[in-house]
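Handout, section 3.2

Students often ask what a structure token actually looks like in practice. Rather than define it abstractly, here is a full record for Methionine synthase. The first block is the sequence as you would receive it.
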Amino acid sequence: MTTLFPTTSAGSLPKPLWLAESEKLWSPWKLQDAELTEGKKDALTLSLAEQQRAGIDIVSDGEQTRQHFVTTFIEHLDGVDFDKRETVRIRDRYDASVPTVVGAVTRDKPVFVADAGFLRAQTDQPIKWALPGPMTMIDTLYDAHYGSREKLAWEFAGILNEEAKELQAAGVDIIQFDEPAFNVFFDDVNDWGIAALERATEGLTCQTAVHVCYGYGIKANTDWKKTLGSEWRQYEQIFPKIQQSSLDIVSLECHHSHVPMELIELIRGKKVMVGAIDVASADIESPEEVADTLRTALQFVDAENLIPATNCGMAPLARDVARGKLAALTAGAEIVRRELATSR
Ligand SMILES: [Zn+2]
């Protein structure tokens, strides 16, 4: 990647209306069987085209083949019973009915590897693939087998490592692990969360990223954000250890959040996906707003390490809004690119 400020999306993009209901999480599929398989592939192709038309440099599948960023991965594993459900508190924030771990968790077959190959075949651009992180996976399950969050996370880390190695072999350039749970369970993150994540990336030669955000723009998250006060310093608890870790890239929520940008200084040396697009609002940022966020970030990130991105996934947004936001991201990055070129 030689482009300065290569743009990317932090996660999911909205699905076409014919594939799933719009503007909601866990949206049920509208197609079935062979039609669903074909429909998911078409949606992936369409999502790629939309990213390319918006000028995005590091493209993804837009998570078009997944119903949810955590559960879809878990559905492909053994040891988890999706009919046996328990209500648990997710991210210490909201209650949800989740599946139960009833036995040893294993991955008997690849989960997203064919999808990644399908994407790879359609573009020469760098591609990024998102997987759930181990701590976020265990936070979305009820465990009736291991009796230890750490032990279960470690098992998942091994499984993620198998998947990640196959994704890399399929031509993925960046593997991103989504760990919103890192913003909540600070002690666990520092005790074993980052170690489990490093276990998931063991032996990889492609770039690795960790995405830590304040969540999708759903009500449970926006309500929670209201309780966090005027300054969100959660990143401060985990950045020192992340800085020491083997992860290459850290993906953060910055725009419109109350995260003091100077906290990014704590991960100096890492590549940083700077969230310059608010995913909790349907208002489309102006390129100038995006440029402002990037300029501020540049005080704490070396230019060659700055990757303009969205705060989080955009699955719950309308498609035209998401398209507009991606285009604004590209235009904002271009403003700062030009400024830097004339000042150097
Ligand atoms: Zn996120």
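Discussion prompt for tutorial groups: The pocket of zinc ion is lined by residues 10-11, 180, 211, 213, 312-313 (CB under 6 Å). How would you have guessed this from the sequence alone?
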